[in-house]
Amino acid sequence: MALSKLDNLYRAVILDHSAHPRHAGELQTGCVINLNNPTCGDVIRLTVDLVDDEIVDLAFSGHGCTISTASASMMTEIVIGKTKTEALELAHLFSEMVTGEEDERQEELGDAQFLAGVSKFPARVKCSTLAWNALKKALEQGDEGNFEGKDQASH
């Protein structure tokens, strides 16, 4: 009975992030990354505003399934205010979690830890990691000095 209530809570949090995504939209400055998941048609445009190695803001737009949208929303809440290194560590931790690896640090993922169950559905792993992969690409481009222009894009 308690497990069923917990599953319902997880489901409710995921649905809330999907229906009311946090940081949806676009920013006027920052590095822009466009990625898609051809398997199910998810598309994301992520804008990351990085100042002095800190993610000061980010936003996403596009369209995707419930898991993809919820994951993007959760990711934005977690990484704003983090350094590039911290954000990359969280992205790595998230990727491990959704592929079935357990780590005692998963609580650092905030609401995103509720997506751990995706590991039971391999086809949904790409949906859950799309935004996180866009973040990794944006931060890699930042290392190459491409954070000045808004129109930097990668597919």
UniProtKB/TrEMBL annotation:
GO biological process, one term: iron-sulfur cluster assembly
InterPro entries: NIF_FeS_clus_asmbl_NifU_N
Domain NIF system FeS cluster assembly NifU N-terminal: 10-127
CDD domains, alphabetized: IscU_like
One Pfam family per UniProt: NifU_N
One Gene Ontology molecular-function label: iron ion binding
NCBIfam families: SUF_scaf_2 (TIGR01994)
The family this protein is said to belong to: Belongs to the NifU family.
Name under which the protein is recorded: SUF system FeS assembly protein
Species of the source: Lactococcus fujiensis JCM 16395
